[in-house]
Design brief:
With about 500 residues, the chain is mainly α. Helix content is about 70%, strand content about 0%. The chain has 19 helices and 2 strands.
């Protein structure tokens, strides 16, 4: 009951006119970025991070709440209309969603996507309201050794799951860790990877890294691709933008199954919602094969409903893991963690005590953002599709200018512009050689936490490394890490054996 009363106070703050404006603006901007190929919610938060410094923390995070889910809505809109997912989390949706659009059922596919995202996000956010304080109490049991184990779990899980190649995943993680340790060591005063350049003594800003890897790297990737004809909006945009009772009954179990798959993945550091969305798609496809008249391959509504609910459920519980434990389980959550740190706040168990007013307003704004996005998504879908009619040279030139202005506005340092250019080249090369981006962001954010926790644990034990595995929590975390690695290895071996047959 205490959670409900606190949530009620959060709604009272979130329903002020200015805060409602920030929610709507964040939803619009998040969706607008999400509909652009290769971009998404992580990109939207990264680009808007410098812009929100002039806002008070409550207003900034309320805007981020709209951006957080808006990017996922935009991803799926483009996946359905033109078979061009705005982000990797919408790839599973594109399989059946675009087939529905090709058969003249684009509005129904968009409605399925919108309602599924709403249901998945609503279930996950409701669970966060009731269980985030419990997670915060559990987090108090974590000491330096436990946080080090948690960081190692996040490193290896994200590196091994998000890429087809474990080596590429580990390579991306190493790049993130190297970027994280640039600067002067706070304990020993040693310079690390600075090349005696004074501008690097304070390290590399998280804004420079996120904008360079995610935004500028994508711009370079588009520029150096072969020229392609710009995609056109789907012609199947006529018809009823709602579901019949029969369609709703068919989609409803898939929404619930997708949400059930996505909820636990929000607190597991596997790099984002790609894994649960494909699991939800695979589950629906397996169930479809048992039917007398299989619909997959011809525009199955359940092939859209499951992945959409799974993706937004994962995003919702990822916010709970971030707020309660300070654990970013995706690239977007990692950037949100950086946003908290920019405002002098550290997500974790103390956040609910020191900044309770902000936390509960933020949670209330997540509910409001879901409703706002449901209202906005269908009427504006044709408008988002027309964005792709803009010539790419103009579209990505504008993104480049926005990147430069955002980075320069945070520090007024030309050195940061050179850094973001160099990191953008790294991001471009990673895309060209199929290196995943999520482990980079996980490494950048959790690298300092892992290093500090390791040092504190060893200092408290007089240098005895046994302290790192001395508690039941560390046993559980390392056991889960071993299980994840074994499952990944088994699937890789099985997949390779199937290809060799």
């Amino acid at each position: 009951m205490e959670s409900l009363s606190l949530l009620g106070e959060g709604f009272a703050g979130a329903f002020s006119p200015i805060n409602l404006l920030w929610v709507v603006l964040g939803a619009l901007l998040g969706t607008a970025v999400g509909v652009l190929p290769g971009l998404g919610s992580a990109m939207a938060v990264a680009l808007l991070l410098p812009v929100t410094f002039s806002l008070d923390p409550t207003g900034a995070f309320i805007m981020f709440a709209g951006v957080y889910f808006g990017g996922l809505f935009g991803d799926s809109t483009m996946a359905i209309l033109v078979n061009t997912p705005g982000g990797s989390t919408a790839i599973a949706t594109s399989f059946e969603g675009h087939r529905m659009a090709q058969s003249g059922r684009a509005p129904q596919a968009l409605a399925t996507s919108a309602i599924g995202a709403f249901i998945g996000g609503l279930i996950a956010t409701t669970l966060v309201v009731f269980f985030a304080p419990v997670l915060a109490e559990v987090a108090i049991l974590f000491g330096p050794a436990e946080y080090f184990a948690l960081a190692i779990f996040a490193f290896l899980a994200s590196a091994s799951v998000v890429s087809d190649s474990v080596l590429r995943g580990l390579g991306s993680l190493i790049i993130g860790l190297i970027l994280a340790v640039v600067g002067i060591d706070g304990i020993s005063g040693t310079q690390r990877f600075t090349s005696q350049v004074p501008q690097l003594f304070d390290g590399i800003s998280i804004i420079v890294i996120t904008v360079g890897v995610l935004a500028l790297g994508e711009v370079f990737n588009v520029v150096f691709k072969r020229r392609e004809a710009p995609p056109t909006a789907s012609k199947a945009m006529t018809g009823r933008p709602f579901l019949t009772r029969r369609e709703f009954r068919e989609a409803f179990p898939a929404w619930l199954r997708g949400a059930g798959i996505g909820v636990p993945f929000g607190v597991i550091p596997v790099g984002g919602a790609e894994v649960p969305t494909f699991m939800a798609y695979g589950t629906e496809r397996q169930l479809d094969r048992r039917r007398r008249q299989p619909a997959f391959g011809r525009g199955a509504i359940r092939g859209v409903a499951g992945p959409e609910a799974a993706g937004n459920a994962t995003a919702g519980t990822a916010m709970g893991a971030l707020l309660a434990m300070g654990l970013p389980t995706s690239a977007t959550a990692a950037i949100m963690l950086a946003a908290f740190q920019q405002y002098g706040m550290q997500p974790g168990p103390l956040l609910f005590e020191r900044n309770a007013d902000l936390v509960w307003v933020l949670l209330a704004s997540l509910f409001i953002g879901l409703v706002v996005l449901l209202i906005l998504n269908l009427p504006l879908a044709p408008l988002w599709a027309k964005l792709l009619l803009i010539p790419r040279r103009f579209l990505y030139a504008g993104i480049t200018v926005f990147c430069a202005l955002g980075v320069y506005a945070t520090s007024a340092a030309l050195s940061d512009l050179l850094l973001v250019l160099g990191i953008g080249v790294v991001g471009f090369l990673m895309r060209r050689f199929d290196f995943p981006l999520a482990p980079v962001m996980i490494g950048v954010i959790l690298g300092p936490l892992a290093e500090t926790s390791l040092r504190n644990a060893l200092l408290s034990s007089g240098g005895d490394a046994g302290v790192l595995v001395a508690s039941p929590i560390t046993w559980v975390l390392y056991g889960l890490m071993g299980a994840v690695l074994l499952i990944v290895a088994y699937r890789r071996v099985r997949s390779r054996a199937a290809r060799d047959v």
